[in-house]
Each structure stands twice: as C-alpha cells, then as structure tokens.
C-alpha cells in the first residue's frame, strides 16, 4: 500500500527501523493542506488549507508496516487515517483527531524531521513556515 509521510517518518533511518518493509518511492506534494505541530506531543499534523502545500514522501509499505505505524501514531486515539488519490492510486496518511492549538515541536523531534527533509530532498521553506505559525 502507499503511505504519505510528512513528519518524523520522512527520516529514512527512523522509517526503516519502524517499518522494515518500507520503500521510499519519491517526494510528492499534498495540495490544499498545510503543515502544523500540535498536541501534548508537539508532533506534526496536517490540516486543510486552500492553495497551500505539504511536501512529503511516498512510501510503499506492507500490511505489517501499517500495523506498526498504527501503534506508533496511536491510531485511532491521537491520529486517524486520511486517504487521498495520487495519479489514480490510493494513498494513506494520518491526521490528528483533535485539532488543538499550535505547539512548537521539541528540538529532538524537530531534528528528526529536519533530517527527513534532507533525506527526501524536500524544500525546507514549508517547514520554516509551519514553525512561524
């Protein structure tokens, strides 16, 4: 199945450790969404926003990888699944259930996300903008 990562799972080392079968396919943009950080975990989330873009990574994952991600993302308590289509193919990602106010991420978490942006060759300007909310 196809999975869209936009936070700490962009980090190739972390993603491989978490989902051993995962294969990074390419970077893609999710249109009409914006990146933010929230909850007591200060973790990445996406929310609908017209004319905005969230850069991320498309991964191929196995069913067992999906189960591991469900546990990691605390599905369905903290995150719920969101599906969209990319060139006719169904893609799964997670979005937070409770849209709490913005909370600046911890330095440790942010460093993992920054490394993920480098791993996937994503434009850091979107990350910088999300942090200036």
Brief account:
By secondary structure, this protein is of the alpha+beta class. It contains four helices and five strands; from the N terminus they run E-H-E-E-H-E-E-H-H. The N and C termini lie far apart (33 Å).
Description:
The chain is an alpha+beta fold and 133 residues long. The chain has a single domain (2-131), classed as Gamma-glutamyl cyclotransferase-like (Hypothetical upf0131 protein ytfp). The chain has 4 helices and 5 strands; from the N terminus they run βαββαββαα. A 5-stranded mixed β-sheet has the order 2-3-1-5-4.
Keywords, please?
133 residues, Hypothetical upf0131 protein ytfp, 5 strands, 28% helix, globular
List the helices and strands and how they pair.
Blueprint: E1 2-5, H1 12-18, E2 23-38, E3 43-60, H2 63-72, E4 79-86, E5 89-96, H3 107-119, H4 125-131
Helical proportion, percent range: 25-40%
Given helix and strand content, the structural type is alpha+beta
Mean pLDDT: 97
CATH superfamily: Gamma-glutamyl cyclotransferase-like
How many discrete domains? Answer: 1
CATH architecture assignment: Roll
Shape: globular
End-to-end C-alpha gap: 33 Å
SS strand fraction? 35-45%
CA radius of gyration is: 13 Å
Q: Please summarize the sheet with the most strands.
A: 5 strands, mixed
């Amino acid at each position: 199945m196809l999975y869209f990562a936009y936070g700490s799972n962009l980090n190739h080392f972390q993603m491989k450790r978490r989902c051993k079968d995962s294969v990074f396919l390419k970077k893609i943009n999710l249109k009409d969404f914006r990146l933010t950080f929230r909850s007591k975990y200060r973790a990445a989330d996406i929310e609908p926003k017209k004319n905005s873009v969230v850069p991320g990574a498309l991964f191929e994952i196995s069913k067992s990888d999906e189960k591991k991600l469900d546990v990691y993302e605390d599905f369905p308590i903290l995150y719920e699944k969101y599906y969209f289509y990319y060139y006719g193919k169904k893609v799964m990602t997670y979005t937070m259930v409770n849209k709490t106010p913005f909370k600046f991420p911890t330095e440790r978490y942010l460093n993992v996300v920054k490394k993920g942006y480098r791993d996937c060759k994503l434009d850091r300007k979107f990350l910088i903008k999300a942090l200036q909310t």
